[in-house]
Amino acid sequence: MTANSTETDLADLGAVELSGGYRNGDYSPVEVMNAVLARTEDKQALNAFVSLQPDAALNAARKAEALQVSGQELPLLHGLPFSAKDLTLTRGVPTTMGSYIMEDFVPDHDAVAVERARKAGAILFGKTTTPEFGHKIHTSAPLFGRTLNPHSPDVTPGGSSGGAAVAVATGMGPIALGTDGGGSVRIPSSCCGTVGLKPTIGTVPNFQAADLFSTNVHAAPMARNVADTRLLFDAIRGFHRMDPYGQARMPQERRCETLKGLRIAWMPRAGNPVDTEIAAITDHAVRQLEADGAEVDEIELDFAALEPHFLVILETMLAGRIAGSLETYRDRIDPTLLVHVENGQKHGAMALAAAGRARTNAFRQVQDILAEFDVIASPTLSAPPLPHDQDPHAPILINGEPAGRVRAAWYPYTFATNLTGHPSISIPCGWDRLHLPVGFHMIATWYQENYLLDIAGLAEQVFDFSLPQ
């Protein structure tokens, strides 16, 4: 059952390729798992994992191999190693959320996305790093330290699903589950050169939110390419009767087979300045799509103006979750998280009401654009990956000038769709002069993930993302 590949080669194979190889008898789930675990050991200096479960993973791989040999029909994700972000509940496996508050917490059930991935045959082998309670764009936390970008130790891999992006970028598993509350799969995907899909709200139920009616946090698939991302998404998607956004049947989805005639609303800015090199690389990317037949018109939406309202929602949620633990754990909580919690304790009903109105208006704006266009495209980030010491509460520099606070200045493109609920994806489209990857972001109408993935797959074939020399 073994192909002519070394264990190192097996760790580099994608999910779709492995899946086909399992069905053809070319690959062994045990050998693949050993290869992934060996790669994870080799790359441990990147600090992408909070914990590993090698014994359980290898035991599951042996069962997968026995099923393969039996000739029975194999499930969709048969034998594929996957990781889950440490914010995501995993039955019998510690879920610390990067915090001393949760250091000893072991869930008695899986999150819906984890349960569905396991049911589809995927094998959980580890939990990936996250900032404490996913609160910032750097992946570092008091409980486990700093995660490094695989392309440069000097800059962040992004957050808050930074460990997941680092893992898939370096062959520590072909697929990963992240979460996205403001860009948390798309920001690290841009920083690390991977693919991150934030589905429509409700498409992948996420019951960890205390208020399911106003949540903006999504369970989300990540991988090295669009096809692998789709494979994981197909396994975890589906409405749930206990989710308020999952009470209807899935609508019929559009599909896209060609870029010819595709109507793209190109949004190079979202009320924010953009690094000149990022602007040039992403503009070149959209012009490549135009050269292949897409129709491109430039727009600008002031997503940056949503930042104060986004912060009210984020900080109120964090305060509600953590304020009761401050007396015991204050000295062991990330200081940047404390700022959010203390701010959240000050927000009142009027601020929350204003945030809800802003969220509604943003939804209507995006809907109006998508009534005329098929997708909204933009850079994923307005500047390259930030240095590790960037204060998440301080202004960032773009083109050498102060550009405002990090959310409004660096990633207004991403957090806006957490407020509006629209599906959005980041795919790599090029490299900057320091050999750091650059992400390309696209937004589609609600429940049109497969349409968005179709377009992303076509764009992936057009963009030049070969490794820089």
Note down, in words, how this protein is organized.
With 469 residues, the chain is of the alpha/beta class. Helix content is 38%, strand content 15%. The chain is built from 16 helices and 15 strands. The protein has helices at 7-12, 15-24, 29-42, 54-70, 112-119, 162-169, 186-192, 226-236, 276-291, 307-322, 326-329, 335-344, 349-372, 406-410, 412-420, 449-462, and strands spanning 49-52, 81-85, 123-128, 140-141, 145-146, 175-180, 195-198, 218-223, 263-266, 295-298, 375-379, 395-398, 401-405, 424-431, 437-443. The strands form three sheets. It has an eleven-stranded mixed beta sheet, sandwiched between helices. Strands 4-5 form a two-stranded antiparallel sheet. The radius of gyration is 21 Å and the shape is globular. The two termini are 36 Å apart. The model has no long low-confidence stretch (mean pLDDT 96).
